[in-house]
Amino acid sequence: MTTNDVAKVFDTVLSIPGMNDVVKIDLKISRKNVLLLNHVIERGLSAKENDKPSILMTSIQEENLQELKLFGEECLQKAGLIELSEKLSLLGDTIK
Prior knowledge:
Helix 2 (31-45) runs antiparallel to helix 4. By secondary structure, the chain is mainly alpha-helical. Helices cover 67% and strands 0% of the residues. The protein contains five helices and no strands. It has helices at residues 3-14, 31-45, 55-59, 62-79, 82-95.
């Protein structure tokens, strides 16, 4: 399959009726994994320009990416980890 074909498949799957419906997920997750999940979300959404984005990421609307970012932040907030996450981020920035 070509890149264009794969993009069309992703677009088709994301356009299936009901894909924009809100679902409730009752999730129990450790604070450690909340931090890691938020880090993975942030890292995936802030891919550098020289990184080649996946076909799926290029076919997702900006609005959906913002929702994903807000989800990560909401998880941090519910776990009481916003301040810790910010401090760890600052610490990581000083190492670079």
